[in-house]
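Pilot study result, target chain (356 residues):
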Amino acid sequence: MMDYDLLTREATDLLCRLIETPRLSREETAAANLLEQWLKERNMQPERRGNNLIVRHAGKAGAPVLLLNAHIDTVRPTASWTRNPYQATLEGDVLYGLGSNDDGASLVTMIQAFRLLCQEDLNYNLVLALSAEEEVSGKNGMESLVPLLGRVDVALVGEPTGMQPALCEKGLMVLDCTAKGRPGHAARDEGDNAIYHALDDMQWFRTHRWERVSPLLGPVKMTVTIVNAGTQHNVVPAECQFTVDVRTNELYTNEELFRLIRQEVRSEVRARSFRLGSSRLDENHPLAQAAIRMGRTPYGSPTLSDQALMPWPSMKMGPGDSRRSHSADEYIRISELREAIEMYHQLLSALPTVRG
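Predicted structure:
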C-alpha cells in the first residue's frame, strides 16, 4: 500500500524549503541547487541545464515517452503581502508563502509521483523536467529544453488547476501599434492628429469579434493596455503608440491573426513574437480520457504556461487554484498536496498508452 501520508510530509518539507529560497525568474540558481541535491539524495540522477533539471526513467527501449513538467521560478511578491513571502508559515492545513500555489505545489507533488511511477512496470518511459523562467516565458527555460528532451509523445504540465484537466490554454501575442499623423499648432486648423487615428483602431480592437469561437477557450480576446502620445499641450501629435494584448484560442495561429489584424487597422502593427501559441489536447487522447474516467472535468485555461513552448500534445493539471497565483498571501493546502500525489499516481499508473 502506498504511504501517501509520508510522501505528503516529504513534499511539504521540500516546499517549505523552496519557499524560503528566493527563486524569481532568471534568479533560480539557489533553488535549482536545492532541488538537484534533494534528487541526488534520493538516488535520482538529474541533468543540470542552466537552472533547469531533467530526470529520465527509461524503462523500455523504444517505448513512447510521457513528460512531467513543473516550473521552479516565481513572480516578484506584490506590495500587499501581509506576511513575509519568503517565510513558510503553516497554519492548520494551510501553507503560506510565495510560490506555494504557483508552482511549488505542482513541482513537489510531481516529483513524488515520478518517484512512485519509476518503481512500476509502465508501458511508457518517463521524463521529469523542472524548468526555469516560466513566469517570463524566457528563452533559457522550457524553450532551451525542447531540443534536449528528445522524443516526447505527450506532456503533463503541473499548474494550479484544482486537479481538473485543462485540455487547452490560450496563447499570447503582444502587438506594438503606431498611428501616424502630421504635427501642427493646436491653436490653428493644421496638422493631422495621430491620436484620432489611433482611437479609430483602438475602437476596432475593442469591438471586433472573431468568427472562430473555441468550445473550451471561448473567443480570441484583444485588449489595449498601453497608450503613449504627445509632447506638449499645444502641439498636434504626429505619432501615437499603443500596445495590444491578444489572447488567442486554438482555432487561430498567432501568424494568421497578425495577418488579419494588419488588414483591418490603419496603424503600423508589429508583433513582438509569435512563439506563444495556443495549445490543445484532443478530448479522445488517452491522457484526457484517463482524467475523465477519474471524474475530472475538462476545461480551457485562460492563463499561459510552458505548454505554449511545447511542440508536443500536452495537458495542464495540478493542485491549487489559479486565482491564488501572483496574489498577496499566496497559499496551498496540505490536503491538496496529498490529493495531487495520489491522483497523479493513479492517473498515470493506469494509463494504457501515451500515444494519441
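One observation from the pilot: Residues 43 and 115 are 10 Å apart (CA to CA). A full batch analysis is planned for the follow-on phase.
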